[in-house]
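pasting input
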Amino acid sequence: MALSLLTMATWYIYAGGAVAAVFLTIGLGRLDENASDAWIFRPLLIPGVLLIWPLVLWRWRVLHRGENKLDRHRMPRAAQDRIALAFVCAIPLIIGIALISRQNPDALAPPVLLEAAK
Amino acid sequence: MAKEKDPFFVGWGKIPKDYKVFLISLTASIIAVFAILSYAISSTQSDPGDGALMGLTTAVGILQADPYPVLHVISSGRYQPGETIILSGGGKRGVVKRAAGFDGQVVRAAGVTMQRGDLNGMQLRSGKNGLRGDDTGADAFTVRVENLGRWRLTGEICDGKCLNGAMRPGRGLAHKACANLCLLGGVPPVFVSSAPVEGSEFLLMADANGKAVTEEILKFTATYVEIEGEVERRGELLIFKISPETIRLAQ
């Protein structure tokens, strides 16, 4: 299980590297004219692109098609109160369940001699 | 001009009267809630124990490479003759390869000592400064081996370096990833029993044949488990020769 997760994360980062290579050399200058011919800062964006490359691809597509209407925050904003409330409930719940379900060191069985040495 | 009912407040300005009571109450409540919460959560954590680093030392003794390298002390400024020391390397590494060529020989070991209860450990210095053959003619002795029978023990599988004082806490779920990295690096695994077995709660782990057992136990580190196996005393150290198929979660 852990190995599968690690393998998936590795390939995710590889894909992010590919997106970063293309976006930071070709895409960025086309999307933002202020970034044209400005190269020094671009390596600084690599770690971020590695992590959120699906979002980068989506925004690239939207901006390339001219669909940007500055309403991209509408959905998160509308749900923000409910999400905040969910977190307020979930965090104590998670801590509580963890404390209840964890193993109790005071209730461990003592050593048992099964068979004496011959 | 009508009184401003909802004055705009910025951090560097004077606090509006209407906000003063609210802000002071809120600040005091936040401090109180987090103080209570931090006390409540920390009070549920286990005592990290008395394991600690104890400074540099040197010991001459008989090296035993299996299941993991240990030193049976012949002479040392710190240890009594006959005491047994679990050996590890720098970082998250063991000294299995370095010790392999010295199995059964008298060696001089130097490094940082660690101690937790009656469990002795040493993080060897690098290269020959840390481990080399000893030709001073130290009086070697035969390491006493005693079979103590077959036991079912309940407790926790830890790595013998962090548990010994390299980390605080060096056990428990919060330490699981570190423990596994140490074990994968060759650090000897130590079983911490729920109660002393023949005088000691710490047992060096081995497989049923007395060889390294790291691969079989990685899934079970840092949780309380029940294991069956033979217990053997070698020098001052107990060896728990487990049957890996008997490992199961306790409770």
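fyi The CA atoms of residues 25 and 39 of chain A lie 8 Å apart.
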